[in-house]
Amino acid sequence: MKNIKFGLTLLMASLALLGCQSNKSSQVPVNKNVTANSVQSDNNRAVLSEVKSLKVATWNVEHLAYPAAQGCKPRDSAEIIKLKSYAANLSADIVALQEVASYQAVESVFPANSWQIFISERADSETYECRKSGFMSTQQKVAFAVRKGLDVKQVHSLAELALDNPSLRYGLELTVSTDFGQVTLLNVHMKSGCFVDNYSRATDKKSCATLAKQAPVLDSWIETREKQGEPYVVLGDFNHRLSAPYNHLTRLLKNNSDQSASSLDVTTKDLIGCHPYYPAPIDHILVGHMNSLSMNKQIKAHYFDKMEPNEMLSDHCAVSIEISADALPLSNAVKWQRTSAEYKYLTQSTYQEAANVVAEANFTSPWVVVMDIDETVLDNSGYQVGIDKQGLTYQTDTWNDWVESKQAGLVPGAKSFIETVIESGGKLALITNRNRELDKYTWQNMLELGLPISVENTCLVGRVAQDKMAIDGGAIKNDKDLRRRQLQQGEISCYVSGSKRHSDFPKLEIIMQIGDNIEDFSGVTQEHVDPMELLKTNDNELFLLPNPMYGSW
């Protein structure tokens, strides 16, 4: 008892120094034709990468056909090889493409073994003779080539940009998980021929009248992203000169209808078009909600080896933006838990004292030790490092990704204590507030760390909605009390494998509770507990570990 009181006193002093911190209560199969709004990912996705970088490019490939010898710009195999080499040298993570005829056409330049390919759902339009050349046109669609390993969350064709006109192009929207969180990109190929600064005053020109109808569609898409507050990119062949701040389309896109400040940045406004005949750029990359002072944006036009008009690989050069950010510093709480000797001393000494209690006791009935998981058995400071360095806070989706990645380590001292419990004939009840649907990942993570757990000696039980709903302020005061009662009554639902569970865990006497949160103890809430009274009634049954990173406080 004396040692426990000393440990808790030292812990409180340590936490007081840290102050308030944050709270926390793959590859995609290549799609030849996008037909669904969502794309399922596998478990190869990166979780909260510490290196923050994203490079995207836009490139009008000029009538890229398959077979390559067809269409308005027939190409031979040597030219395709040059296009492929040029594409590789972009070193981009995502490339928005315009004027591509088909999945096969894109694949000839962006091989499917390295790239995920997505192409708009626009129906094939009627062919026509290409500028009296004798060649018949192929399709002009937009597509994305996404480097394999990036997690594509959603793909959607924006048909509204085509204005129900079969000769106009759809937009293509793609949401991808990146080092900056989820980013939504929109690939556009706008109506050509309206090169005045104010299309609204040139509606007698057919191309400008069409652009005037497309502009509100694009503006509406951008306004939606502005309100959502998440990073977005609009890129492609605008067929319009957005570089001037007085350009009518630029002003429309940069002014939010609710009068809020726009985050939109025309990053390509200072570029010079690469084509010798057309110095005013019409290929642009616009970004929103990426204006952090720590973000660096490098814009580049990628010139061809030969820039004579008749020797260019296409009539547009690719334009790219590389967005990077310096990692933000770790919070004191995370730094302390990751690096301090005090943290290791506190956890190991606490577990050692608890193990001594177990080893020296003589229990006369079947018994169980109830333990929390996070920051009690499993060390999730790696997750906290990731969100700290990116300036993020706890989010359910990133947390679930972390759990599924099974990257958590062990809290110092936890393994030896668990071994002592099992060797002494006891059982473990791991009552966690991780979502119960994630139990299989938690179990696999613990097995991979070498913990001697089995379905016979350990009951793992995550949280469900009923655990919160059962709180009545009486017998059930916190969201673990119901599961503790079920454990004592022999009714608890324990993880087995996959989605299987069992309720065969016997009625057991809870002889000890260990956690990192005061609510890991029976009948206790953060708001109403008196720590000193709890200490007075604690007879080597309650052990509290340090966690300055998050909690019910």
From TrEMBL:
Q: Which residues form the Endonuclease/exonuclease/phosphatase domain?
A: 57-289
Q: Does the keyword Signal apply?
A: yes
| Keyword Signal tagged | yes
The entry's keywords = Signal
* One Pfam match: Acid_phosphat_B
What transmembrane ranges does the database entry give?
none
Name of the protein this chain belongs to: Endonuclease/exonuclease/phosphatase domain-containing protein
Q: Which organism is it from?
A: Thalassotalea eurytherma
